[in-house]
Design a protein that fits this description.
Blueprint: E1 5-9, E2 18-22, E3 26-28, E4 37-41, H1 42-81, H2 88-102, H3 106-120
Antiparallel strand pairs: 1-4, 2-3
Length: about 120
């Protein structure tokens, strides 16, 4: 039984067949050899696409969780250590005050809270 093959747009040259210049091949894309497409096994390609989508979903969820925790930590530090302006100097002052009071940077606090949440979650 022959495997079903599928043509996909070359991800390196985005279908143009050309990529950055080099002295040997000019601008011909190395990945697709200038064709603009690749022929791949459809089953493997679909499995890889699903896995990539799942990884992206996990990255996005982690990014959202980290942003939520960072906003909470920033709010807590603003209340605890005093108002800091939303400038580079204000950020520097917040980090300095946080190090003096807690012995950690705000980023370290965010990371430790994130790790605690992830450790508490059951594995999937």
């Amino acid at each position: 039984m022959a495997d079903e093959m599928k043509k996909i747009t070359c991800p390196r040259c985005n279908g143009s067949g050309n990529h950055s210049f080099n002295l040997i091949r000019g601008t011909v894309c190395f990945k697709c050899d200038g064709a603009g497409y690749l022929t791949v096994d459809a089953k493997t390609h679909n499995r890889n696409q699903k896995a990539a989508a799942k990884r992206k979903e996990q990255r996005d969820a982690l990014r959202e969780l980290r942003a939520k925790i960072a906003a909470e930590v920033s709010s807590e530090l603003q209340k605890e250590l005093g108002p800091f302006p939303d400038t580079c100097k204000g950020g520097y002052d917040m980090v300095k005050a946080c190090r003096e009071k807690h012995g950690k940077t705000p980023g370290d606090i965010v990371q430790s809270r994130l790790e605690a949440i992830l450790e508490a979650q059951p594995p999937k």
